[in-house]
Amino acid sequence: MTPGVRPLIAGNWKMNGTLREAAALAEGVRAGLEGVRGADLLICPPFVHLHVAAASMGWKAVAIGGQDCAAEPNGAHTGDVSAAMLSDAGCAFVILGHSERRADRGETDVLVKAKAGAAIEAGLIPVVCVGETEAQRDSGEAEAVVAAQIAGSLPEGFTEAKGVVAYEPVWAIGTGRTPTEGDIVAMHARMRAELVARFPGQGGTTRLLYGGSVKPSNAASILALANVDGALVGGASLKAADFLAIAAAVPA
Ligand code: 13P
Question: Which CATH superfamily, name and number, covers 8-248?
Answer without folding.
Answer: Aldolase class I (3.20.20.70)
